[in-house]
Design goal:
single chain, 367 residues, Rossmann fold, mainly alpha, Tyrosyl-Transfer RNA Synthetase, 55% helix, 2 domains, elongated, binds tryptophan, two-stranded parallel sheet, 16 helices
Length: 367
Amino acid sequence: MGKISLTGDRPTGKLHLGHYVGSLRNRLALQADKSFDEIYVMLADGQGLTDNFDNPMKIRDNIIQVTLDYLSIGIDPDRVTICVQSALPALTELTFYYMNLVTVPRLERNPTVKNEIQLRGFNEGDAGLPVGFFTYPISQAADITAFDANVVPVGEDQKPMLEQCREIVHKFNTVYGETLVMPEIMLPKNERENRLKGTDGKEKMSKSLNNAIFLSESKETLKTKVMSMYTDADHINVSDPGKIEGNVVFSFLDVFCEDRHFADYLNDYKNLDEMKEHYRKGGLGDVKCKKFLLAILEEKISKFREERAKWENDLSSVYDILLAGTNKAIKKTNATCDRVRKAMKMDYFSDKDKIVSEWKTYITDNK
Ligand code: TRP
């Protein structure tokens, strides 16, 4: 079998540059890689509901926002199948079967779930932990296996999900016979270049922390966000020596700056090392650094904006893309589910003659 990849996003907000460097960029590389036979990207709306069940409009609205985000960065719907999780009934069925293969203590040990329970305060006061949320790693295993995905490109935080999925696959194949494909995680290659801090210097860029730059950011708000970035509190006068470590502007430049940007926007330097050296020594002001970063980000995001505007003017085509992708995914996941039912001896309605003759033999033998 060739390579099949699946990734997903919870449609709970517009995607930002953190998503872009952590995973979307990799997907663009993947779609250019001819060794992949099938590439799926799933809008995990069901998973999004596990901690937003009381806000269905948030999920509904972000189905279109995230789809537009995908299309605007250049995900090619002819190459990548974009589909909606809740419209794939095979996934809930598989989840139902896999639930028998996972214990409560094992789920409790899943570090991502543990961490998220903490973050959402599910175990504080009388909030209570929703069963659906607690068990989402099982449903994510259903997502992955339903598509026969052998490659799952995700960030570091999803490692425990993949481990849990691999355990389920192993257990299933041991109990019911070789049926499910064992998935491999595909992590971003260069950790430093694949992690983006928030504009406030916090480790993670996140919508809820209010420190994100969105892929659909307007020119004006992009400028405001870059110009108010945290730099080095001790770098008061231009002539003062400055620190690179912990300086958000430089951590963004580490990720986005290429040598050609100096020729285009700041020809005082040949490359980022030269610029950093000057900053450390003193004599390079924050405003100049920020304007340089702004030019680089504006170049990138203006392309996304243009592409997005085209799709926004043709929402009927976006609808058709989602529908076609989802229909293709229904077929694919139903086929896996048929295989699973057969392995689990539940293919009662697959072949009338065969089943009736099996019944006959069984009843005769047990008279
Ligand atoms: N849990 C993933 C996230 O929060 C989203 C997701 C759902 C996913 N289903 C998936 C990722 C299947 C990879 C494969 O980002």
